[in-house]
Design brief:
Blueprint lengths: L10 E4 L23 E4 L15 E9 L20 E5 L4 E6 L7 E6 L5 E5 L6 E3 L2 E6 L2 E4 L11 E5 L3 E6 L2 E7 L5 E8 L6 E7 L5 E8 L1 E6 L7 E7 L8 E7 L2
Length: about 260
């Protein structure tokens, strides 16, 4: 697919977290000039693993969100759980699948787990997640697929802990906001680090009040497209692991031609 050139870029950074630091202005490649206003928004987070176990009890957890959290967002960045959304709940013996019972800014997660004094939640649910000594390992996808409104549900990782059956979710990722014109017929956006940074792969989250992360088997780029390969238009969001890009980033926009 060809890269579509465009007029100069306007870039604004708003940080809600100390995790994301980018050089300003960001160096851009000679062959690509951008014209889409871009906004980076940050937050914090965590994650974990699944095991089969006996003695599971049906239970419910209520959800509370602080700031911009959860993978399905409205265009104004308000949170919107959807009925059927899946989160993982770790009960000390394994990861259990819990399902959102209603739409809205908060929801009830229902499923089965062992009775425990504390729990950890991971959104989205990952059957291959793992937990070891205060850290959770999951995967941050290289390809982000928009299936709903404006963001890929598999890409905005969020976690929470609970001792009272209430989860307050926090993010581990940042958001890159783009305003795309329908007439440009953009079907794919690709972000690439211009340095040695890796931005997708196996993520290990350290669980704490201010969780950190490390990345293994990483790749230097992530891409965003719609599930039906259709045109990206209006306000859309790419999820980005917050970090310092020493040499800047490169954004490429591909059109359907």
């Amino acid at each position: 697919l060809p890269i579509k050139p465009a007029p100069p870029v306007t870039i604004i950074f708003i940080s809600y977290s100390p995790f994301l630091f980018l050089p300003f202005p960001i160096p851009l490649p000679e062959f690509l000039v951008l014209h889409y206003p871009i906004l980076i928004i940050c937050s914090c987070v965590e994650q974990m693993h699944d095991n089969n176990g006996a003695g599971l009890t049906e239970m419910e957890f209520s959800t509370v969100s602080e700031g911009i959290v959860k993978s399905y967002l409205n265009n104004d960045l308000s949170i919107n759980w959807e009925t059927g959304d899946l989160a993982g709940v770790y009960d000390g013996a394994g990861w259990r699948e819990f399902e959102a019972q209603n739409d809205g800014p908060s929801t009830t997660l229902k499923g089965e787990a062992l009775n425990a004094s504390s729990y950890i939640a991971l959104y989205p649910y990952d059957s291959n997640a793992s937990y070891t000594s205060g850290t959770v390992k999951t995967t941050f996808p290289q390809v982000q697929i928009i299936t709903g409104n404006c963001i890929a549900p598999n890409a905005l990782l969020a976690v929470a802990t609970s001792t009272d059956k209430t989860f307050t979710f926090k993010n581990v990722t940042s958001l890159l906001k783009m305003n795309l014109n329908a007439e440009d017929k953009i079907v794919k956006v690709e972000l690439t680090s211009r340095g040695t940074e890796r931005i997708a792969g196996d993520v290990t989250i350290t669980i704490s009040d201010k969780p950190g992360y490390t990345l293994e088997n990483g790749t230097p780029s992530v891409s965003l497209e719609k599930e039906d390969k259709g045109i990206l238009q209006g306000e859309i969001f790419m999820s980005v692991l917050p970090q310092n890009f020493e040499s800047g980033i490169q954004l490429a926009f591909y059109n359907e031609d």
